[in-house]
Write a structure and sequence with these properties.
The structure is a homodimer of 442-residue chains. In chain A, strands 1-3-2-4-6-5-10-11-9-7-8 form an 11-stranded mixed sheet, sandwiched between helices. Chain A has 17 helices and 11 strands. The first copy, chain A, has a single domain, classed as Amidase signature (AS) domain (Amidase signature (AS) enzymes, Alpha-Beta Complex), CATH 3.90.1300.10.
């Protein structure tokens, strides 16, 4: 087995135990890039020499007996909206061509501190919004990989790196992970600081991660979690032991709430309906259907208002100077945001707290909510990235969510099963997710 | 000396040591009410029998050897915007006449848990905004007591209770305390939960306290401080030991930054200019003038926008059903708030974080900022409550602020000296305030 097929956890362990060097691993991953990148197009920037230099440095440090971090020597991909001190950061926009930040984003700095090799920058849609980049779905080059974290999802799915980071303001981690058939994890809002990442919406922006196992996304998230003075939504609390809890057995067989969500009737495609019918049958009396109340009906509109207003506010200068260099949908979004009144905006934000209480009551009886990650398999065509609507509610509420590639459509394409947990209970969600993968995969 | 003239700390100690009963203290305070209330008009609701019943209960509990709290048996006043389970809560508006909440506000519940007697509800302006209530200044019945916490300031100044609570969204604690010649303390935003109090503006609302000494406001605030699940701006951290630190000596002679603030030139009256010239002279090389940068110029407008938007949002239903029962200025404020765009609102809120950093740098060199509490002495007339403009910046920033009645105008009326501290450093601010009272009073 080629080293680039190792999971993040396996690769880190092999390096820690001296069975593999970082240089060998990175060389293997680069060989895989040579092989598949022409078709997949996951990378915005990738400097082979720079990646190998980092690997050599890390191997030397280990050889000299220096302490190593939990990701020592393992290469990861970084969505091109996170600032990096060694690669350009262009936000998927010609307006920022050649931009070279001086400082790493907090998430990148923490990955480096844990010993990761920053392999390169992955393709994002324009400003992490809808206008697609060049990336194609590794399972079918005629299909979208999803977005906005298109390159991160595709690079992990195609074994070019074992893990990568992305961001989600609506459905930008869960959807591409589901379309590309990898595990995508969006932790609780504020668990991972967003300092140094493109700011679209303080209320909605989340840092998320891609891996090929639940253990991998747990490890990645744990390394980046924790308080940061410059992100006011992070909390001055101890980092949760995500990897250890995710690796442990649930004390009781988990119970699942099957929440079709208010968008099921309109958006769930036949493939999704069939797959979930099978899943519900497989879980037997461990799963019950739970319907959300009518109060959730307004969420799609509220999330849209918040996103439009906060993007209009944060991208104000880009809009002023961008002109034709901004896509038409982005310009229109900003114009809609400018037209929204402050009281309507506050009403949209004001729904979060009461609906969170409402959702919390589900977790008194169930370990996780089970719901689709997307309407169906990755759609054909590269001019759009698919519909984020099955993520909207969980992004709005800031709950942790993970998608698991445990089902397939008739065409053999991946379908994601999204599990949602209680805010700040990320570890329990991941433990439940691992249980599900081990017990129903196939 | 009549017991009603005791400070809160003294009264609590006398009761604790068995030298005074709660009934004796409350009777003395009620006698004082009989004497001065016809002129001062500080109370919206005061039930003599109910107050004495609480006092008798507390005396009995102590006599039976039950544990007592730090305010055991001491009567306090509650601004009539805080819900009380035993008194009506009418928010200073005919629209809410006869409203009787079932549950105490969090601040009231904590006072009760500390052993306080809830003496009654004090007069507030309409919805804690500008339209005045019936209260008069105890120093001169032809002058305003200030607002919006008019009754609390006046009741404490007139020795009807040793302490009372109020609220501040612009200058509603600091200004009436200064006009009435008592100590007013507005702790850091979020230190005391606002659950169960009239919500005008989540961003700006603070719970504040009135007393006749720094020790008293420290004790009151400490009893009410701390995390509350229902106020999202409180923090899950240990309560600061405000009373103990306020009672201690500063390790070094404190250093003061005299900040005239951007509104001094336009608003500081001659009495204030003279008094501050004397204060600066008295403090010698312990005080230096510090000028705020130009970036503070927009704060008055930003605070106004936030207050208008958030009040328009929170008082939406009152506006719809209120009609003629709302004052014209309040209706107009709500209409202005409705007209503000969400992006302008976000720009106004967006100034808080960078300006806080800017102010924080002052506290690396100085223990406290010294600045006026109001333009001058309490103005003549009862149709308005004076100008909050010297509080606006500190309310906007959420910094702790305390006003000290250590100066007088030529007419012999109180002038407040406002000290401002670093966010979350309330204890140090109060220690510095006590030092100033002890060293320059006269």
């Amino acid at each position: 087995m080629s080293a680039c097929a190792f999971s993040l956890t396996e690769a880190a362990e092999h390096i820690r135990e001296g069975r593999l060097t970082s240089v060998e691993l990175v060389q293997d991953c680069l060989a895989r890039v040579d092989e598949v990148e022409p078709a997949v197009q996951a990378w915005a920037f990738l400097d082979r020499d720079h990646a190998l230099r980092q690997a050599r440095d890390l191997d030397e440090r280990r050889a000299h007996g220096n302490p190593t971090g939990p990701l020592h020597g393992v290469p990861v991909g970084i969505k091109d909206i996170f600032d990096t001190s060694d690669y350009p950061t262009e936000l998927g926009s010609p307006l920022w061509a050649g931009r070279t930040p001086r400082r790493d984003a907090a998430a990148v700095a923490r990955l480096r501190a844990a010993g990761a090799v920053i392999m390169g920058k992955t393709v994002t849609t324009e400003y992490a919004y809808f206008h697609p980049g060049k990336t194609r779905n590794p399972h079918d080059p005629e299909r979208t990989p999803g977005g906005s974290s298109s390159g991160s999802a595709a690079a992990v799915a195609a074994h070019m790196v074992p893990a990568a980071i992305g961001s989600q303001t609506n459905g930008s981690v869960i959807r591409p992970a589901a379309f590309c058939g990898v595990v995508g994890f969006k932790p609780t809002h504020g668990l991972i600081p967003r300092t140094g990442a493109l700011l679209l919406s303080r209320t909605l922006d989340h840092v998320g991660v891609f891996g090929r196992t639940v253990a991998d996304v747990a490890l990645m998230a744990e390394v980046m979690a924790g308080h940061d003075d410059e992100d006011l939504d992070t909390r001055p609390m101890a980092r949760p032991p995500l990897a250890a809890v995710a690796a442990s057995e649930p004390p009781l067989p988990p119970r699942f709430a099957f929440v079709r969500s208010p968008v099921w009737d309109e958006y769930a495609e036949p493939a999704t309906r069939e797959a979930f019918a099978e899943l519900v049958e497989a879980l037997g009396d461990q799963i019950s259907q739970v319907d959300l109340g009518e109060s959730f009906g307004a969420v799609i509109d509220w999330q849209k208002k918040i996103m439009e207003v906060e993007m209009a506010y944060n991208l104000h200068r880009d809009y002023e100077k961008g002109g034709e260099q901004l896509s038409d949908p982005l310009r229109k979004l900003i114009e809609r945001g400018r037209g929204i009144s402050a009281v309507d905006y506050l009403a949209a934000v004001g729904g979060i707290a009461p609906l969170t209480q409402n959702i919390d009551s589900i977790f008194e009886e169930y370990d996780a909510i089970v719901t689709p990650a997307a309407p169906g398999e990755a759609p054909r065509g590269l001019s759009a990235t698919g519909n984020p609507i099955f993520s909207t509610l969980w992004t709005y509420l800031g709950t942790p969510a993970v998608t698991l590639p445990i089902m397939r459509s008739e065409a053999g394409l991946p379908l994601g099963v999204q599990l949602v947990g209680r805010r700040h209970n990320d570890a329990r969600l991941l433990r439940t997710a691992r249980w599900l993968v081990n017990n129903v995969e196939g």
